[in-house]
Amino acid sequence: MAELKHIVIFRLSAMGDVAMTVPVIRALINQHKDVRVTVVSRPFFKPFFKGIDRLDFFSVDVKKRHKGFRGLIRLYRDLKKIKIDYFADFHNVLRSQIVRVLFKFDGTKVAALDKGRANKKALTSLKNKIFKPVPTMFENHCTTLRKLGFDISLNHPVFPVIPALAPELEQHTGKKDNVWIGIAPFAQYTTKVYPLDLMQKVIDTLAEQEKSTLFLFGGGEKEIALLNQLKRDNDNVIVIAGKVKFEVELNLIQHLDVMLSMDSGNAHIAAMYGKKVITLWGATHPYAGFAPFHQPIDYCITSDRTKYPLLPTSVYGNKKVEGYEEAMRTIDPLLVCSKVLDVAHQNNS
């Protein structure tokens, strides 16, 4: 039997970006039986890759062993020990560039992500905007692998089999006997967060539906406090944030019928499992290449560009434009509820 070709895929952060690598890596392994993959990332993200054949996970210790320039030299030497044939840099930042160059010097075939910054800048420009889709991050990752000689298609993705419901979840969720809806109302930047008074209307309206349970996702004390406010006295709304470990949350996500999320990590996590994902968009836009994997474009509900013609104003949501603070208020809560219920019941029809 021929020895497998060993590919290292390097992507450290952020959560959503790491989740976006998963469907591409699954396709690579499924379509190339002669390869094995080592994912190099932060230990927190290891559960994303659970159960993928011919895949190992290498945890980077950015706080101690692999910290700073000397730490990157040490990281290179640690990776050398596992004898790799190809280095795919899915991050392309200074840290990954240093490690990539070291591998290039020793003769390893390397390739790096092209982030398409020029096209994204044209899309988000406030003057002479070019409003058209740029290649998705998934397409960009495929292009990176193609540079190494591995052509893959994302047209017919294979998703993992839904596991049994984790026993530690049942005390919070009970047995699944109705429609399960996930809601992740937060994002890293406020320009991507649906106003909480409107989100309250969404939650209250969805909670009125018979035979449905809503699960609220988030992290940190501040978000958990806000989630408990959004829950109100709705018995079928469960704040799951802070109650179970991250890997158990991932198990719950795999049992959802639909996830409602901002342009944020939870959208990409749900999508990597093949879940249906409805996303709400403010300063950012799905045309920038960060729409969740394998979702119809009408699952992306965007703010009104007739009223706010400069949208999108940011690729990541980190830029604020005066006068655009209320853009997401143009998204009707009833429209959101209608879309969520339509998609949820499609899954249960």
Order of helices and strands: EHHEEHEHEHHHEHEHEHEHEEH
Structure annotation, total helices: 12
Principal-axes shape call:
globular
The residue fraction in helices comes out at 25-40%
What share of residues are in beta strands?
A: 15-25%
Contiguous uncertain segments of 5+ residues: none
Question: Which structural class fits the helix and strand makeup?
Answer: alpha/beta
List the strand order in the largest sheet.
8-7-6-9-10-11
Number of strands: 11
Radius of gyration: 21 Å
Rounded mean pLDDT score? 96
Please give the alpha-carbon distance between the first and last residues.
46 Å
Biggest β-sheet strands, sense, barrel: 6 strands, parallel
Brief synopsis:
This protein has 349 residues and is an alpha/beta fold. It is 34% helix and 15% strand.
Question: Helix and strand layout, with pairings?
Answer:
Layout: E1 5-10, H1 15-19, H2 22-31, E2 35-41, E3 55-59, H3 68-80, E4 86-89, H4 94-105, E5 109-112, H5 117-124, H6 137-147, H7 167-173, E6 179-184, H8 196-207, E7 212-216, H9 221-231, E8 237-239, H10 246-253, E9 258-262, H11 265-272, E10 277-281, E11 300-302, H12 333-347
Parallel strand pairs: 1-2, 1-4, 2-3, 4-5, 6-7, 6-9, 7-8, 9-10, 10-11
Helix pairs in contact: 3-4, 8-12
Features:
five-stranded parallel β-sheet; alpha/beta; globular; six-stranded parallel β-sheet; 349 residues
What does it look like?
- Helix 8 packs across helix 12 (333-347).
- This protein is α/β, with parallel strands linked by helices.
- The chain is built from 12 helices and 11 strands.
